[in-house]
Amino acid sequence: MSKFTQNEETEIVKSARDITATIEYEEREVKRLKSESFSEPPEPPVRKILEKAKKVEPEYPEKPKTTYKYSEYFKEKVMKYSLPARILRGIVLVLLALSGIGYLIILVLFGFSYKNYIQKKKEMNNQLANSKEYLQAVENAEKTAQKKQKELEEKIRLEQEKIDKEYATQKQQYESVILPQYNDALNLWNANQERKIAIIEEEIRLNKEALDELYANTKIVSLTYRALWILSWLYNDMSTSDHDIRYATELLDRDRQRLATQEAGNIVRKSVGQVEQTMKVGFNAVYNAIEDGNELQLDTINNLSKMRRNMNTGNVIGTVQRHNTNKMLEQMVKKKR
Q: What residues have CB less than 8 Å from 45, skipping those under 6 apart?
């Protein structure tokens, strides 16, 4: 039989539940802090390189072409003969045209004549293309293209020079100001993060010590009933009835498998949620003190946190001690009687 009253047992279970819920929340907070990371470093400036100037092609003048016609060529050929010869040549052609074979001969002669005309016309075009005037125009076009090429390259060179000067300024600003500021902020963030984690881990250690002390001094909650959802279930049952710890655990064991699979998670979330808001306020106060570099405020918060924890645990332990003292006094009175 327990040495504690039902109310005392209920308070012991409540304290165990609250400390366990606090530890679980603090462990989640440590995990969250460890998963955080500082922002990525600012991107360094990038030197922009302009494309090379495209080749400027000369705008050549169109090659000159002769207007020499076949009729002019034919006339020249005919006119080189005397008048009697031209008349005779004409009569022969007419006579030939009147016969089939003669017609073919005329066609062959015409084809040969036209081929000579084309050759002569080609030679005349070549002469025009190599004329002093045309060659000068070609040279002028190439000089104009070269001039434009140099102007374009100079323009790009000047633009690149301006870009490089801006890049050099940005690079110097990045290396001497921006990056050092980022590294300082990163180092400070890492240091603050380590302090936050260290403080909460110390809280966890002290809370675990307090919980172990509670279990050791009361000895009413066995090892198999110390899970958070079980402590919460037991407290809810005991605080709403006259059930003591023994009867409450018997009720739990009857339906424990169903509770473990269906309700345990909800019970744990609800229990942690009950301490979450209070813990958030406390953590934020600690975080703000760390980030502000306010050591005095941080020491005050830590001392109050430890004092609160010690008082809460002390109240339960005090209950146990007073209970033991009362038992001793009762025994002494009985002996005197």
A: 167, 170, 171, 174
Instruction: Tell me the Ramachandran region of residue 227: left when phi exceeds 0, alpha when psi lies from -120 to 50, beta otherwise.
Output: beta
3-class DSSP assignment, residue 131? coil
Residue type, 81: Y
What pTM was computed for the model? Answer: 0.63
Residues in contact with 11: Cβ distance below 8 Å, sequence separation at least 6, in sequence order:
316, 319
pLDDT per position as a tens digit, 296-326: 666 665 665 655 555 455 555 555 444 444 4
The residue to which tokens 């076009």 are assigned: 141
For 163-222, the DSSP string reads HHHHHHHHHHHIIIIIHHHHHHHHHHHHHHHHHHHHHHHHHHHHHHHHHHHHHHHH--S-
The radius of gyration of the chain from alpha carbons, rounded to an integer in Å, stands at: 54
* Distance, CA of 239 to CA of 232 (rounded, Å): 10
> How far apart, in whole angstroms, are the C-alpha atoms of residue 187 and residue 175?
17
When pLDDT is cut at 50, 70 and 90, the band that residue 330 belongs to is: very low
Q: What does the alpha-carbon distance between residue 210 and residue 15 come to, in Å, rounded to a whole number?
A: 10
**Per-residue pLDDT tens digits for 238-286:** 999 999 999 999 988 887 777 666 677 788 888 887 777 777 777 787 7
Residue-wise over 231-254: b if at least 16 C-beta within 10 A, else e? bbbbbbbbeeeebbbeebbeebee
